[in-house]
Write a structure and sequence with these properties.
This protein is mainly alpha-helical and about 425 residues long. The two termini are about 35 Å apart. About 75% of the residues lie in helices and about 0% in strands.
């Protein structure tokens, strides 16, 4: 037990310091192996790499196609077109809501969170300028739209955080719709109320919009396609995945093909976009696989049995212990998919057995795992947070407090609401 805790601390601290999880995870796994009495070399070559490779084998096609889909949406201007259309409808008086919904539509349509940040930022900057809102709130506004309810809560979302639990609980992307919608309402409603309140308080303190140092990002050049054409690939992915029950690989392929057909005049730029998406997907899958490999080592040491007993022994509904396990591990790794991968790789089969034995719907376990992964994952060392702050030109000191409220605190509250619904049978 002590070795597992020490390994988690090593993983979390080194990740917080900015060290890549690609090599931090093996080090942390080595700590767990040594304190657990395992042979270090065997633990790395067999156990760690076994978990690493198994996850990559199962999920690389989804990571690859998802990244290519997002990159094509970005490079063709379709992602920006969707964002522009939404913000025009809402206007500058609802600048925060416009940014949130722009990011949400893109994320729910299957566009990578990182791509959404790049696509929405120029529009967000323009809206914040016109509404004279302090830029310190801009990162939290984008985070609310991209990192929360469309990532984990709304049924049918093609984001990886909603797809991973399917393998462990024999569910679909539409699992537990009532719980998911309730969680989404808590996150969107609570987050928007908080940011609106913060807008008022910052203005009362005399804080208003200030121009960023990097003026190149403010006014991106290039013609963008129509909104109707731009929204079609997002709709195709959602419809084929959820209505026609296609495999996510087929759904993403359909979206990619449609993007290319609708932008056939930009055919020469496709290779660059596809290459960029493919390269980005490799880093993403390796990061998550590294975290899962760490969880595989944890699973085989003697102390894990005691840890399992502790988590499963948490009083009350077993959904509570699942939420705690996923949240803690997502926080330790700074990754929603990585933390959930570790937790479900180690405990997924146990929770599925509990679901079958107790009569609790496996869909409830699916939705709680997904929701819980989007809580403590957004701590300061989270990769998406670091990217968001870099792109917006803000620091942790200036903007992280607001990110914490909308992307950590309120999502954790949404998990509690979802569990309460499951307890009374509303799944």
């Amino acid at each position: 037990m002590l070795g597992i805790i020490l390994g988690l601390i090593v993983l979390m601290v080194l990740a917080y310091l900015g060290w890549s999880i690609i090599w931090v995870a093996p080090i942390a796994a080595g700590v767990v192996a040594l304190t657990g009495g395992l042979d270090l070399l065997d633990a790395y070559k067999d156990t760690y790499m076994g978990g690493f490779v198994a996850f990559a084998q199962a999920w690389f096609p989804v990571f690859l196609l998802g990244a290519i889909f997002g990159k094509l949406m970005e490079d063709t201007g379709m992602a920006r077109s969707v964002a522009v259309a939404i913000t025009k409808v809402l206007g500058t008086k609802r600048a925060i809501l416009g940014v949130v919904l722009s990011a949400a539509v893109l994320t729910y349509g299957g566009v990578s969170l990182f791509v959404v940040v790049f696509a929405v930022y120029p529009l967000a900057l323009s809206l914040f300028r016109e509404a004279n809102i302090s830029r310190r709130l801009l990162p939290a506004t984008v985070a609310l739209g991209a990192f929360t309810f469309t990532m984990t809560a709304i049924p049918g979302t093609p984001q990886i955080q909603n797809l991973i639990p399917m393998n462990y609980f024999n569910t679909t992307a539409m699992a537990a719709p009532i719980m998911g919608i309730a969680g989404a309402i808590v996150m969107l409603g609570g987050g928007y109320w908080y940011l609106s309140w913060r807008e008022k308080t910052t203005k009362q303190k005399g804080e208003f919009f200030t121009e960023p140092k990097d003026e190149n990002v403010m006014n991106p050049d290039g013609h963008i396609p129509s909104f109707i054409l731009s929204i079609l690939p997002l709709v195709i992915v959602l419809v084929t995945l959820n209505l026609f029950k296609w495999d996510v690989i087929g759904a993403l392929l359909a979206g990619i093909v449609l993007i290319m057909l609708l932008n056939i005049n930009k055919m020469k730029s496709f290779i660059k976009a596809i290459n960029g998406g493919a390269i980005g997907s490799v880093t993403a899958i390796i990061n998550t696989s590294a975290a899962v490999g760490f969880g595989t080592v944890v699973k085989v040491v003697p102390g894990f049995e005691r840890l399992t007993e502790m988590l499963l022994g948490i009083k009350g509904n077993p959904l509570i212990s699942e939420a705690v396990a996923v949240n803690i591990l997502a926080g330790a790794t700074g990754s929603a998919s990585g933390g959930m991968g570790i937790a479900l790789e180690a405990l997924g089969s146990k929770y599925y057995e509990i679901a079958l034995d107790t009569g609790i719907s496996p869909e409830a376990f699916h939705r709680v795992a997904s929701l819980a992964s989007g809580g403590l994952d957004t701590l300061p060392h989270n990769g998406a947070v670091l990217t968001l702050l870099t792109i917006t030109g803000m620091s942790h000191k200036e903007s992280y407090k607001d990110i914490f409220v909308v992307a950590v605190l309120i999502p954790i509250i949404s998990v509690i609401v979802a569990i309460l619904l499951a307890i009374v049978g509303l799944v």
